[in-house]
Prior knowledge:
- It is a single chain.
- The chain is mostly helical and 317 residues long.
- The chain has one domain (19-46, 56-313).
- The protein contains 12 helices and no strands.
- The chain has helices spanning 19-41, 44-52, 56-83, 90-105, 114-119, 126-154, 158-179, 190-208, 210-237, 244-258, 269-277, 284-313.
- Helix 4 packs across helix 12 and helix 11 (269-277) runs antiparallel to helix 12.
Amino acid sequence: xxxxxxxxxxxxxxxxxxxxxxxxxxxxxxxxxxxxxxxxxxxxxxxxxxxxxxxxxxxxxxxxxxxxxxxxxxxxxxxxxxxxxxxxxxxxxxxxxxxxxxxxxxxxxxxxxxxxxxxxxxxxxxxxxxxxxxxxxxxxxxxxxxxxxxxxxxxxxxxxxxxxxxxxxxxxxxxxxxxxxxxxxxxxxxxxxxxxxxxxxxxxxxxxxxxxxxxxxxxxxxxxxxxxxxxxxxxxxxxxxxxxxxxxxxxxxxxxxxxxxxxxxxxxxxxxxxxxxxxxxxxxxxxxxxxxxxxxxxxxxxxxxxxxxxxxxxxxx
Length: 317
C-alpha cells in the first residue's frame, strides 16, 4: 500500500483497554438521558408525524450531497498523506475512511476517526496517521469558523463576529510555530518527543507548500459548503425557510456543539442546539425532526454504508 522504505516503527502503540468501551457506554447513557429530557418536553409522535411528511425531493438531494462530500473528504485526506510521502491510492483512502464510519457511530463524536490509524498501522506509524487526522480537523475548524464569521457579519450579529475573530486569532497564534517549522523538544523520553514530532509533521509539511495549502483548503471549503447546503435541505424538507446568512451564523454553532465528545455522534446535544437556536422559525417538534434528519444523513447512513468497507479496509481481519 505504501512505499516499503517507510519504517513501521515510531508510532504510538494501540493498547487494548476497557477505556474506549467505558467511554462508549458513558456516551450511550448521556445520549439516552438527553433524549429522555427532550422527549419529556416534546411529544414523540408529533415528531414522527413531522418526519412522515418530509419532502422526498430534498431528502434525495441530501443523499447526493452526502455521497459527494464523502468523496471530497477522502481526496483531501489522500492529499495530506501524500505530503508525508505516503502514496495511498484514492480507493484505499476511501475504503479506510468509510470503514471508520461504523466505529464513529458507537463512540463519542469523531473519535471513530482513530480507526483509520488502526488500519494503516502496518504501513504508517500511528502517530503520523493521527497527525494527518488532526490536520484535517484544523482545516475543518478553521473553515467552519470562516463560515461563522461570514454568517455573523451578514446577519449583523457583531458581538458573535468579534468572538469568532478572537478565536481565529488565537488559533493562528497557537499553530503558527508549528506551521513555521518549530520543533518541540520537551523534557521527556526521546521516543515521546519523536511521537510529538510525528503528530505535528503533516501540519508542517502542508504549510511548507502553498499549493497544497490551497488544495486542502479548497477541499475543506467544498466539504463544508456542501454540508451547510445539505443541512439547509433538512430544514426545507420539513417546510422551514431559513435565511442563508442566519443559517451560516448558526449551523457552525450546531456542528461545534455536536463535536463535544460526550454523546454518540453528537446526538442529543446537537438536537437541543437546533431546537434552541432556530426556535424563531418553527415549532420544537419540527426542529427536532431537523436534528433527527441531521443524525440520519450525516452519521447513521454513512455508518451503514461503511459496514461493507470494514472488511475491505482491513479493520476486521
